[in-house]
Design goal:
Length: about 400
């Protein structure tokens, strides 16, 4: 079977992706270090049930002085600067309230006014077909497929330095939500072509979002196709689709008209997804309705990379300034108190694993984070292109 000119059933080279770890003395270091890196870096994007007390205190402590109102919120009427690039939608820019009030997520507070300029955005996340075309044209090897240098892991048996990535595995029975290692597995051989590991492929998922994609992989694809990653401000403005401070990209009702609006988790997490939205795992990128700007999958299905470094205090200085922040590019460095040494970028949109029991990052103003070398079975991306100036 082939997709985009690549044989997806062919064996792939024994490679391994880079990661940091503090477990060098353990003979099974490869599996455990990758799993922990994913849990602390990527899975940490989905916290436990939102902490509304923390949300209240964070908002109350940093109410933006002088921030006025809804009068400042607008969507620009500037027309598109030309014909739409293939598969892209014109996002006209404007001013909006950025952040997630009453979500129980302190790193998405305080809400503050941001203005973004117009830009083109992919109408949907990059699919397996599209990524296969890139790999076929360039011979690119993803981070998840590359060999580790044994010198970086002294004392680790070579047979433990195997390729793979983190794959979600439902527990089957209810478990406490304090240890994500119960539902995440480092799976040798898992990568974008084999999302669940050896024996799996994407031949029937050509129009599903590509997954197991690290930040470096996104940059390589973006350079090839002459696009870039969105900032998180651009992503949130686009995700809101012209709606002012609504909960979701499609409005305030999680299931409008009793119908699923996104691919998220139904049922007891992480035991069993009932699949009431029609899908277990990823779904085709056009399976659910578009938002007000004509964009698919701005909430749910897969997490999506943004260009900004992650810090939990990113919003505070903007809010304290009490003015509209124009086209913010994010902080100059990364810092996560949970992992001070890890370089992390912002994720947006949530995924098919999000639920109000554990994650809820399909809330349009919420934020995620991932260590830059991490890729998982629920992490993909989409790109943008700046308007000519």
């Amino acid at each position: 079977m082939a997709l985009g000119g690549i044989r997806l059933d062919a064996p792939f080279t024994r490679v391994a992706r880079a990661c940091y770890t503090t477990l060098e003395q353990m003979t099974n270091i490869r599996v455990k270090s990758i799993a922990l890196a994913v849990v602390l870096a990527t899975v940490a994007a989905c916290s436990r049930k939102p902490d509304h007390d923390a949300d209240h205190h964070a908002a109350a402590a940093t109410t933006p002085p002088g921030a006025t109102a809804a009068a400042a919120v607008r969507v620009s009427t500037t027309p598109a600067p030309g014909p739409a690039p293939n598969g892209m939608i014109w996002i006209p820019g404007g001013t909006f309230w950025m952040g997630c009030e009453n979500c129980g997520m302190p790193d998405a507070l305080p809400a503050h006014l941001v203005a973004v300029s117009g830009f083109w955005m992919d109408r949907a996340p990059v699919t397996n077909t599209e990524f296969a075309q890139f790999v076929n044209a360039t011979g690119y090897v993803t981070v998840a497929e590359r060999p580790l240098n044994p010198r970086d892991f002294p004392g680790v048996p070579k047979d433990k330095l195997v390729p793979g990535s983190a794959v979600f595995a439902p527990t089957g029975t209810p478990v406490a939500l304090d240890n994500p290692l119960q539902w995440w597995r480092y799976t040798p051989g898992a990568n974008w072509k084999h999302p669940e590991g050896p024996g799996s492929n994407v031949s029937s998922r050509a129009d599903h979002p590509v997954v197991h994609i690290a930040y470096e992989d996104v940059l390589a694809y973006a350079k090839w196709i002459d696009k870039r990653l969105p900032t998180e401000a651009e992503f949130e403005f686009a995700a809101r689709g012209g709606l002012d401070r609504h909960k979701y990209p499609w409005g305030n009702d999680l299931n409008p008209g009793g119908k699923a609006a996104a691919n998220i988790w139904q049922g007891r997490f992480p035991a069993r997804d009932r699949g009431e939205d029609g899908y277990l795992g990823t779904s085709p990128v056009t399976a659910f309705p578009v938002n007000g700007f004509g964009l698919y999958d701005m909430g749910g299905n897969v997490w999506q990379w943004c260009s900004d470094w992650y810090r939990p205090d990113t919003y505070a200085p903007r809010a304290q300034a009490g003015t509209v922040t124009p086209d913010p590019q994010g902080p100059s460095d990364s810092f996560d108190p949970a992992e001070p040494g890890a370089a992390k970028r912002v994720l947006r949109g949530g995924s098919y694993l999000c639920t109000d029991q554990y994650c809820a990052r399909y809330l349009v103003g919420s934020r995620g984070k991932s260590e830059v070398t991490s890729g998982t079975s629920n992490l993909g991306f989409r790109l943008v292109r700046s308007a000519p100036r």
